[in-house]
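Help wanted!
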Amino acid sequence: MLTLIGKRILQLIPTLFFVSVIIFLLQQLLPGDPALVMAGEEKDPLVIEQIRQRYRLDQPLPIQYLAWIGGVFSGDLGESMRLKEPVLRLVAQKLPVTVQLAVMAMLFTLAIGIPAGIVSAVKKNTVWDYAVNVIALWGISTPNFWLGIMMIFLFSVQLGWLPASGYVSPFEDFWGSMAATVMPAFVLGNSFAGVLMRHTRAAMLQALESDYVRTARAKGLAEERVILKHALRNALTPIITLGALEFGTLLSGAVLTEQIFSVPGFGKLIVDAVFNRDYAVVQGVVLVTATTYIVLNLLADIGYIFANPRLRS
Amino acid sequence: MKKLTRWTAAALLLAASMTAAGARPTTLRIGLAEDPDVLDPTLGRTYVGRIVFASICDKLFDIDDKLQVVPQLALSHETAEDGLSMLIKLRPNVKFHDGEPMDAEAVKFSIERHMTMQGSFRRPELASVDKVEVVDPLTVRLVLKQPFSPLLSQLTDRAGMMVSPKAAREAGERFGTRPVCAGPYRLVERVQQDRIVVERFADYWNKDQITIDRIEYRPINDSTVRLANLRAGSLDLIERALATDVAEIRANPRLRLSTAIDLGYQGVTLNTGKSDAAKTAFGQDPRVMQAFSLAIDRVAINQVVFNGGAAPGNQWINPQHPYYQSRFPVAARDIERAKRLLREAGVRTPVTVDFMVPNNPEVRQVAEVLQAMTAEAGFDLKIRVTEFATSLQEAEQGRYQAYMLNWSGRTDPDGNLFIFHGCNQPQNYGGYCNREVDALMQEARAKSDLAARKAIYERVAERLMTEGSIVYLYHRPVIIAHTVRLEGYRPMPDGLVRVIGLKLRPN
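Answered by r_m:
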């Protein structure tokens, strides 16, 4: 089994190399000259030249790439052209914010999606089922931007219950942090909650019609026990797989939500960086996100190996 | 007696609690439209950065609401007869945030830093300065290469901001993460894209005018969300509110609206000589360009897009500016004349134009209005919405025929004119070049008398109105909204929030 896990980890190296090259090259395709954007309104030719030299923009692409990737290996993701700050520091500052948002969104999703999906399956073709389906469809089809603005108007402007934007660290003020992130987390998790409701419903329906459930019922077990212990346990496996993959999507999906609620996470960092052609920041953020995604996938794979003995051989 | 003592104690307690309440630190929360770039006056290049600088870095001079230059860290200035030097007397007993003296040596250091530091954006602004001489501890002399009257106005902005030599030497390029200046507030904390916090500087030279203890700047890009924060009480002041929200702000009894017309302009830059794209009648024949301008109803644009809040314009400065040429007022739309001019030019209509428009909802809306208006005269504007950074590169390479461009503006008229119309100047996207106009603009730079300069600019205006490469449209409104609790806010034409004299009443 250890060999298998080792193999999977070794496979990461070419993947990460490939990802780093793609990130680097794709960015070069962006139209717009970073030195020109950075030079601002005055556009002093000498300053443009200095920017090109300092950030190696005047050098061939392979040299630019090697300089960047060499830095990455020594823990240096470069410097933000716009803010004159190390990218690693910016990433370290923003990543926990986005992770907190994604974790909260995930919790929302699980807390709403799974119970609603179970109810919908158990009460198939009743008002409950229809209601859950309508809510799920609403969740999937409501644009984050619209929902975010509406929530700000309702909970911040009209009711004054929650702050309209901004971020507070949970280590500074736990409840303040919850209040600041509850709306963005809900908006971020909203669409996935809808997806999860429908998946849970389908998986539960399949489980409820299977032989082992029929056997369990025949044994005279209480209905709750049949649903929660026998059906749900089996239905959960595909749901958790979906959840693990979706966590990565939530991390990247935070871009828009962070913009609406002015949450200073990865999303806001990358949007500003792209518009300002702040290459080092874009590369750093995308590389860290991609690596997180890949590592999550690896962990999920290792999890399966542990969970399913058949995969070990 | 006992009763009296109890009453006295109660009164004392009440008084103590009131004093405590009075002493509670006041915080002003300002919503910014963007996150500022590096907070180093030498390396900063964004407009929004200037809003933050207004509280931390004082300048040698400032402007007042009538665009007059007024002293700030300097007490006075005197330009030599030949215009080749400027003597600046400094305010005594001024300190930087680190306790270092703000004296002539510090001024020399700061200006030389602006002029020589790698990557300095102030270099072109101070290009006319040859050297800085310390005359005595409170007097400096700027020796110029040639007479340059816009220099004084440059010193009212970032080029005039003074930094602590000790802190700047120690921090080097990292100075922008912890700027040490001589402003009323000192930087406490900055979390990128989240907040910039400054607190009152106890040794500020004009501290009696400062009553607010802390200011928190919070970047919120979306203007709707920014206004929602103001309405919800999470912010006390927001900059760049939308013209379409003006009615709502006015109707809210808890909010105050403050507007001014900005120093810049919005115009359509025409490619008249930048690249091969200019080699059509649209780029070459002044009659076609005049027809384009005559087909536009500037008053209607103002009504449709800005609810009447902007100022229709036809020059590089707004009609309230002391240098505005009232001999050339904004022309009314004249579609018949526009059609006649097109006929005279012998072009086949519709004249198709590749119209590059940066991706911004307001600007897109104006572009669509222009499209409809000019179509009636015989133009077919093909709007090409382009992301801003890309549009800059396209404009630089001349891959367009018409380009919608906004300029944030400078106090001195030269700052809105020379780099756009001077031959081979950095912002001359239209590729306009006329040696006579160049000479006139240079002449105006060498004169400091308003009437004399204005007379020269009149001749420039005459030329540019008929053959220039920019069709000026309007001057944007600077819209600031704030809570009624904030007192003493004065609208300024540069839109920057001056913190001197502001008071925030408790809730």
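OP: Thanks! One thing I noticed: Chain A is about 80% helix and 0% strand.
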